[in-house]
Amino acid sequence: MIGWNFSEYDPESAGSVFDQLLKLFQELLLYISGDVTEALSWLTELDRQYNITTDDYGMADFIQDLIDKGLIEEGERRGKPGFIPTSKMEIALRRNALDDIFGQLKKTRLGNHNARFEGKGDEYTSDLRPYEFGDDLESIAMSETMKNAHINHGIDNFRLTPDDLEVRETHYQSQTSTVLMIDISHSMILYGEDRITPAKKVAMALSELITTRYPKDTLDIIVFGNDAWQIQIRDLPYLEVGPYHTNTVAGLELAIDLLRKRRNPNKQIFMITDGKPTCIKRGKRYYKNAFGLDRQILNRTLTLAVKCRRMHIPITTFMIATDPYLVRFVDQFTRANNGKAFYSRLDSLGEFIFLDYKNNKRRRK
């Protein structure tokens, strides 16, 4: 039977007053993009309404504990003095996001993308095989190749032929380069819906997952509005929506450029968005159309999806919305790339509808 199981409320299960306040404080930090002063102001108002603190532990004690535990420190934000989050707080935010969204993910051996196949990869095995057209020159086993040349042609008539070449076999998909794309267009807060906060949460969860569980992998992060640019992992909690349209083409072009520079053969793109592209660039000018799906913008976007497929770069889209016309675009985009898509409502971020066109699968995560 599908439903909810209710149990008796246990006040102690919620943790100490500090733990309760910290959880609320971290959620507020994400919502207001890292403004500690404003987050504390909102938390004080919540405490006034719901009596979270006690006579023995008040807001002043909580703030002092944040300082003592190295979670906030004095600094400047936008030129104004005050408190700012520390790197320890930034790590805690990413770990919390990982637990919230991928908490049920099974642990694997660090850095491994296990597969049953051998082939083009970056980690050599002890196996050798004859050279085949298209093999990288770097994979040639020089000692064995020279030995074959001596045996086949002798020392007096030494020469090297294609039949002498041997290459070292590699594990298939032992390392992956990922580009994470995050939509910061105005639609992420349009009509009073806050989509940027869950988008940041997904981005932090993905970045923490990749950097901690797959340390051999590489991760580049970009944001896209009218244009696209690269950011650092530590910038994720502070992302804010701008007065931008959605130039998905610019994001994909930058992602492809970044992946071209990565030498390992296994590459992928994660894109977090709330839907359709509404902008492309023509020379120095922008062409924008926020009404419906513009055919020119759509064609440019789908062309890049197909290009990524031909370059063997799968795109996984995390869709922070379930509006039917937005879902139709993501379906079309994912089909063109032969990639994957996750759909989630704002009120159930940890539960995704998973769509895998390559393997023709659809399920709940």
Task: Provide tags for this entry.
365 residues; alpha/beta; Rossmann fold; 3 domains; eight-stranded mixed beta sheet; two-stranded antiparallel ribbon; 9 helices; globular
Q: Per CATH, what is the topology of the largest domain?
A: Rossmann fold
* SSE string, helices as H and strands as E: HHHEEHEHEEHEEHEEEHEHEEE
The secondary-structure class comes to alpha/beta
> On the 0-100 scale, what is the average pLDDT?
82
- What's the main sheet like? 8 strands, mixed
Q: What is the CATH level 1 assignment of the largest domain? A: Alpha Beta
Shape label: globular
Low-confidence stretches: 106-111, 115-119, 353-358
What portion of residues is helical?
Answer: 25-40%
The CATH homologous superfamily name of the largest domain equals von Willebrand factor, type A domain
Strand-residue proportion = 15-25%
Strand order within the widest beta sheet: 7-6-5-8-11-12-13-14
> How many helical stretches?
9
Explain this structure to me?
- This protein folds into three domains: 13-85; 124-171, no CATH class; 177-364, Rossmann fold, CATH 3.40.50.
- The protein is 35% helix and 22% strand.
- The protein has nine helices and 14 strands.
- The strands form four sheets. An eight-stranded mixed sheet has the order 7-6-5-8-11-12-13-14, sandwiched between helices.
- Helix 9 (324-337) links the parallel strand 11 and strand 12.
- The longest helix has 18 residues, at 196-213.
- The model is unreliable at 106-111, 115-119 and 353-358 (pLDDT under 50).
